[in-house]
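Teaching assistant here, posting this on the class forum so everyone can see the example we discussed in section. The complex has two components, and the goal was to see what a joint structure prediction looks like when all of them are supplied at once.
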Amino acid sequence: MNIILLSGGSGKRLWPLSNDIRSKQFIKIFKNEEGVYESMLQRVYHQIKKADPEATVTIATSRAQVSAIHNQLGNSASISVEPCRRDTFPAIALATAYLADIMHAGLDEPVVVCPVDPYVEDEYFKALKKLSVQAGKSEANLVLMGIEPAYPSEKYGYIIPEDSSQTTRVSAFKEKPSAAMAEKYIKQGALWNGGVFAYKLRYVLDKAYDLTGYKSYQDLFERYGELDKISFDYAVAEKEDKIQVMRFHGKWKDLGTWNTLTEAMEEDIIGNGILNDQCSGVHIINEMDVPVLAMGLHDIVISASPEGILVSDKEQSSYIKPFVDSIEQQVMFAEKSWGNFRVLDVGNGAMIIKVSLKKGTSMNYHSHEHRDEVWIVTSGSGKAVIDGTRKDVHVGDVITMGAGCPHTIIAETELTLVEVQIGKEISVQDKRKFKIDMDAF
Amino acid sequence: MNIILLSGGSGKRLWPLSNDIRSKQFIKIFKNEEGVYESMLQRVYHQIKKADPEATVTIATSRAQVSAIHNQLGNSASISVEPCRRDTFPAIALATAYLADIMHAGLDEPVVVCPVDPYVEDEYFKALKKLSVQAGKSEANLVLMGIEPAYPSEKYGYIIPEDSSQTTRVSAFKEKPSAAMAEKYIKQGALWNGGVFAYKLRYVLDKAYDLTGYKSYQDLFERYGELDKISFDYAVAEKEDKIQVMRFHGKWKDLGTWNTLTEAMEEDIIGNGILNDQCSGVHIINEMDVPVLAMGLHDIVISASPEGILVSDKEQSSYIKPFVDSIEQQVMFAEKSWGNFRVLDVGNGAMIIKVSLKKGTSMNYHSHEHRDEVWIVTSGSGKAVIDGTRKDVHVGDVITMGAGCPHTIIAETELTLVEVQIGKEISVQDKRKFKIDMDAF
């Protein structure tokens, strides 16, 4: 099975655990069978591999998420990087071209597209496999998954099937309705449109040619910024006559708010937290080292991260977005391909950052124009390359880098360091990357 | 007026703003007339000076609080330092001896003793002045303040006066009663015992001689650890026949819990916080740089500091102590005479601390046996003295100090630095202080 996972979102709704560069799919809150917390991305990836060990997984995403994906999945999934945000049609067209030109998938091979963040059981991925098989053998150009509705939701679009058989033709699409309208649709046998569908690779390449003049992956990539912002549903699905829907009857949840997310949590507390016995319906998700103490609370979610602290009535939590939009703050933590960083203190011409590198990784070789930096190694060992000169580094070593001086560090073991940035204009944009042959050092 | 302020308390009840070394009286939550937040200590000190500009204020406290008092009051109050914790009688005896021997107060001068943390209006301090005058002229050895009860509290002891006149003899003391019993006392005209009283200096020195064999302040100070733990009420007041009580009718609050403390706050939010319009009765006290967002909450207090995060129903907050006792954690911030420090990160053989010095101050000249340290100056300028050698330091300078190397810094302007401690055994106990003539550098 070829599967394209659409990984988008700015993640404001799960603030403070999500931020401008960590979307909700990267938050580690699901305990796996080994008792280790994993993210939605990791959970979905492992579920796909369990359902189909041969599956090729391609993640369609923005540049901002590439580091976090590498951090969480290593190099086990391919990534189709969107140079900028367009809508779902350009993203799916680009990822499909990536499968054809870069991964060398055959033009008749079926491709399944689904969002990266459904909270589902393993049977869902077996259904994706059936969807893929159906797309491969069917006369239909597009085979959608239709999810049997659990309640008359106003949050989803609906698919009206021609009849109630397992796989049938689509008779109509309906936009997100009112609850009353949704109820009416459901009585007519409507299914939720979860944005999951399959097609033969050739089909979307042809559509891409029709709509964008597609020549090759490289061509599409280079012209990506010029493409119209248009959804796949609007550009393709709603115009297609040869279109089928396959029913899916099983658990399917979109964990987009703190309210729905905490429902899926197995424990009341993740991280350092205490609930007194007068609490009920309280969840604590604490990514800080210090404890959260909750006393006498009911149906409340508490979440703390280096970005901030949320304390919200669970129902109210779905109205979070405008408040988070009003908070102007730089990104305080991020997962990178080489590990992660966390801002410990900021302001007054200085920034203090804790940097953790995984064994065997290294940052880009880079310099800054407007700030000096100091590193103090606090654990592990490795090699620093400073202005072209190699230096072995161990715990306690101090490395100073003036503005303009190119530098990197190669972690030979797990390695942590404190980075102190000093300058009047400290900005993530102030970074110049250099090519370097790491093997030479 | 000579006034002794008793400053005690471990401060667990106002966690996370109080900790093992910052008691509740040091928390800055009261906005003064200039709009600046001040602590209970600062508020009470300024109220005393307003009521009596000539007042000499002596704070009886433990060694642990000396730095914080200097930080908040400079050198404007005298400090009688208790070498270890005994009960109120030894503390009051020592402070009285301090007044006699160090401050050279006369033996017939009246002394007023009161706790450092009552939340009261200015009239209270006018009443203290009257108490002082009464103790100076009265035949009684001890004049207590009796506070007219606002409700039948179980939290206070009661004083039964002989009659209802403004100043009268004490007929009996009553221990903290049940609410029903308290109601009965109040019907008999009982007054709250707020631990406020006045005496002639000689009186307590005589008692100290009787009970401890007191010779001088120095003698009492040196033998302090051998003294019995005994309260002033038990050792003196309850045995005294020549004892009067003066009624006080005015606002008097003991802000010992989050519930009572937030009642005294003028604003809903101190620090970086947002309340949505579905909140009522919510208070945020946030000492962190990052925002607290509260949504849909009622009658809840949220407090965040480098020690941790509390979210509590206001009534429940009075049961906080056992939970805080269960939290094992080092002190994460402290006010020192020279400024303050805050632990930014701890663990894995390293500790990262942000140190802020006030202009013109300096730390002790000291060394550590089991850890190396690195300083990076992030703002301001000054002089470092490292192993006897002076070095001018400016923003961006890095100073490394191996284990055993004595060091200090003298802040010529306001100065901040990052201190990185590296060692297998990092402990506040690992500190050796050296004498140094700062003027020589």
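For the discussion questions: The CA atoms of residues 270 and 389 of chain A lie 44 Å apart. Chain A has a mean pLDDT of 94. Think about how each of these relates to the inputs above.
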